[in-house]
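Long-time lurker. I teach an intro course on protein structure, and each term I like to show students one example going from raw sequence to a predicted 3D structure in token notation. This year I'd like something fresh instead of my usual example. Would anyone be willing to generate the tokens for the chain below so I can use it in lecture? Attribution to the forum is fine with me.
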Amino acid sequence: MAKRRRRKTSDRPGPAGFLVVDKPAGYTSHDVVEAARQWLGIRRVGHLGTLDPQATGVLPLAVRAATKLVPFFQGGDKYYVGTVRLGIETDTLDGEGEVLRRHDGSLPDEESVRRELATFVGDIEQVPPMYSAVKHGGVPLHRLARKGEEVERAPKKVHIERLEMVRFSPPDVEISVECGAGTYVRSLASDLGRQLGCGGYLASLRRLRSAPFDLEQALVIDDCERAAAEGRLDAMMIPPEVALGFPVVRLAEPAIRRIVSGGDISPGSLDRAKPGTRVTALGPTGGMIAVLEIRADRRLWPVRVLPTAVG
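-- Reply from a regular --
Happy to contribute to a lecture. Here you go:
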């Protein structure tokens, strides 16, 4: 007997865009994605950078065709505030894990902490935590960690633009961190404690910015649920052209057909822009069609074409 094919469920129609959620503690990033799928009645939702379950703050979601734009936001800077608790080390490098060691002696003074914090500014190397989504042999490290396994992890280079002490209240040290993508603030807290000789873990973390999205744009879960129930959530999304921040051109149907087929078009008013300049192309009704780039031949070529249903 032939197998019955599973019928694909079609997404509810609507605009492409970005929904910024203020993730509460206790939710995984995937939990928020699943919630958004329910709110909007669609499957095409993805996030732009994982937040640990106990962390809160800015979690940008790409909705519908905007999921194809995620690569343009990778590598953006992040801004966090958090609390490092000195004197205790845990296996997860945060407050969710098992305590491995407790420091019996006195804790370092404020000046010592400030001095060590300064050593992390710039390009540094971090070893990814075992409790992370980094894969080893195709398996996420956190799955191995939960089975009691620990494997060698190659250090990776990350960039800390700014790291400052906000408040010194032993055993807690509140910090603010401006860093590049891929930085583990949990590792930063653990490494700080190790350099101070007393150990430490990340007791709390809140993300205030995930470029170009910030906390002022973020909606709490309750507001998202209410807006979805009232049919207002689509209108609360950030349009792709706003999020990207590229120059915008509007295309007529002949130019759209050429771009969708992989062809190039005239740069029009952007004829003096530098090669490499990226542009957002919109259709006649304002929907996004593609990301274009001015090449050395002074023509606009498609870099990423979105489904034409967006237009």
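Some talking points for your students: The chain has three domains: 17-76+213-240, 78-210, 246-310. Helices lie at 29-40, 110-118, 141-146, 185-196, 221-229, 240-244, 253-260.
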